[in-house]
Design brief:
With about 240 residues, the chain is of the alpha/beta class. The protein has a single domain, classed as TIM Barrel, CATH 3.20.20.70. The chain has eleven helices and eight strands. The chain has an eight-stranded parallel β-barrel with strand order 1-2-3-4-5-6-7-8, surrounded by seven helices. β3, α4 and β4 form a beta-alpha-beta unit.
C-alpha cells in the first residue's frame, strides 16, 4: 500500500478553531488551511476579520482561504478585495453561485484577471468547472474546490467526476483542483490518484491518518476487544434460561 509520504497531493487542514489551527501549523504534513463561515460559526467566531488576522499569524506563509459571505456580487467583490489585501498567501473563496443560483463566474473572471487568487467553492458539477475554467486567467493562481464528498453523499461515484474535472482544467496550469469534503481516509488516496493537487481534511479526519496501512488482523482484534470492553464496562448481562 502507498504510504502518505509517497503522495503528491497537498493536505490542507479545514477548520476554524484557532487552537487547532495552531497545532496543525506545527505539522509539516499540513501544507495549507481553509475555513468557511459555517465552520467559523460552529467555532463561536464573533469577529470575522479578527479571526482571520489571528489565523494568518498562526499559519505563517502557508496558503489559507477565507470566504466572502455577501449574496450580491458588488458587495461580494468589495469583500473579496478586502480579504485579498490581508496577505499574499490568502486565497479568496468565492461560491460558484449566490443563493439565487446566479453564476459568480463574471466576478471570478474579474478578480482573476486582476491577479487575485480565488478559491472557487461549492462546486458539484463538471459544467460548473468548465465555466470556472473559462473565466480564470491563465496567469493567476487559483483553486477549484469540487465537493467530492457531497457528490458521494448522493450515491454518485466522485472519482470519475474528479477525473473529468482534472481534464477540464488542463488548459489552466495555475488552477489547482481541490477534493473538498472528504468522508474517509481512502479519499486522500483516491484524490492523489486522480491528480488533485489539494485535499481538505477536518481535524477529525486528520486524526485517522495514523491508521494508514494498519495491519487488518491487528485492527480486527482491537475491534473485538473494544466491543468486549464496552459491554463489560456497561455491565450488560443476558440472563440464563
Amino acid at each position: 500500500m502507498v504510504s502518505i509520504s509517497d503522495l503528491s497531493i497537498a493536505i490542507y487542514a479545514d477548520g476554524a478553531d484557532l487552537d487547532t489551527i495552531a497545532a496543525r501549523a506545527k505539522d509539516p504534513l499540513i501544507k495549507g488551511f481553509t475555513t468557511n463561515p459555517t465552520l467559523m460559526r460552529k467555532s463561536g467566531v464573533q469577529d470575522y476579520e479578527l479571526f482571520a488576522k489571528d489565523a494568518l499569524v498562526l499559519v505563517g506563509d502557508r496558503s489559507i482561504s477565507f470566504e466572502v459571505f455577501a449574496d450580491d456580487f458588488p458587495t461580494m467583490e468589495k469583500q473579496a478585495r478586502r480579504i485579498a489585501s490581508w496577505g499574499k498567501n490568502v486565497s479568496v473563496k468565492i461560491p460558484i453561485t449566490n443563493t439565487k443560483g446566479e453564476s459568480a463566474t463574471s466576478l471570478i473572471g474579474t478578480l482573476s484577471a486582476e491577479g487575485v487568487s480565488v478559491n472557487v467553492t461549492a462546486i458539484m458539477t463538471e459544467a460548473q468547472v468548465e465555466a470556472v475554467a473559462a473565466a480564470l486567467s491563465a496567469d493567476t493562481s487559483a483553486i477549484v474546490s469540487v465537493f467530492a464528498g457531497r457528490i458521494a453523499d448522493t450515491g454518485r461515484d466522485p472519482v470519475p467526476v474528479m477525473q473529468r474535472c482534472k481534464d477540464i482544467l488542463r488548459g489552466k496550469p495555475k488552477a489547482q483542483l481541490l477534493w473538498a469534503s472528504p468522508r474517509e481516509v481512502l479519499n486522500l488516496f483516491q484524490a492523489d490518484a486522480v491528480g488533485c493537487e489539494i485535499i481538505t481534511m477536518t481535524d477529525d479526519l486528520l486524526k485517522k491518518l495514523g491508521g494508514t496501512g494498519k495491519d487488518l488482523d491487528v485492527f480486527s482484534l482491537e475491534t473485538v476487544k473494544m466491543f468486549f470492553d464496552d459491554a463489560s464496562s456497561a455491565g450488560y448481562d443476558i440472563a440464563a434460561d
